[in-house]
Amino acid sequence: MTMRIVILAVICLSLASCKPKEKESSAPEKIASTEKAVKLIKTATEVPSTAEKLYTVVDGDKVDNNTLNGWRTWRALACERCHGAQQEGLVGPSLVNSLKVLSKDDFKKTVLNGRMEKGMPNFGGSKQVIDNIDYLYAYLKGRSDGNIKPGRLQAIEQ
Ligand code: HEC
Predict the structure, then answer these.
(1) What is the 3-state secondary structure (H, E, C) of the chain?
(2) What pLDDT score was predicted for residue 4?
(3) Domain segments of the chain: what residues?
(4) Does the C-beta of 125 come closer than 6 Å to ligand 1?
């Protein structure tokens, strides 16, 4: 009987130590309510699939409809004013470089919450951005990967 308890205790202990650590947050100034919004958006838009393709591109300038909407969102919100028409940076950093290291979560947080004190506005008030945040990410990732050309895009012909 005591043996069993000891074994149980050992199992509990090892389980506890295996528990993944809480992800450390990089931005201490995160606002709780906006965080909640980001979570909501995530659950609303993220498909439970595992390795789904972010974007599909043909000839560098023909993309799937979602990615096309990402590009349209980029154009509509005029991100190019600060990040450059080719996303290579202006007053804001090059997103071609940024998206090689920035996680999707951090991308969403930055775009939705902004980094006001550093000159990056928040776009969490734009329905177009909220609805298309995954596709905006997909488009910029495609640019960063070098698979999508800068400039005008069109839909892949069906
Ligand atoms: C008024 C200028 C301005 C506009 C418009 C703007 N940004 Fe920014 N953005 C910045 C600045 C400045 C930074 C750098 C902030 C910093 O130093 O952390 C930045 C940072 C970012 C980052 C983080 C880059 C990194 O390496 O951490 C992303 C992603 C980003 N912007 C995306 C966008 C998108 C998408 C849009 C359009 C919806 C947009 N930005 C519109 C100025 C702007």
Answers:
(1) CHHHHHHHHHHHHHHHHHCCCCCCCCCCCCCHHHHHHHHHHHHHHCCCCCCCCCCCEECCCEECHHHHHHHHHHHHCCCHHHHCCCCCCCCCCCHHHHHHHCCHHHHHHHHHHCEHHHCECCCCCCHHHHHHHHHHHHHHHHHHHCCCCCCCCEECCC
(2) 65
(3) 57-155
(4) no
Does the beta carbon of 120 sit less than 6 angstroms from any atom of ligand 1?
yes
Residue nearest to atom 37 of ligand 1 (CA): 79
Res 33: pLDDT? 60
More confident residue, 67 or 37: 67
Query: What is the dotted CATH code of the domain comprising 57-155?
Result: 1.10.760.10
Q: How far is the CA of 86 from the centre of ligand 1 (A)?
A: 14
Model confidence pLDDT, tens digit, residues 48-101: 455 678 999 999 999 999 999 999 999 999 999 999 999 999 999 999 999 999
Which residue CA neighbors atom 3 of ligand 1 most closely?
Answer: 82
Query: What pTM, to 2 d.p., does this model score?
Result: 0.74
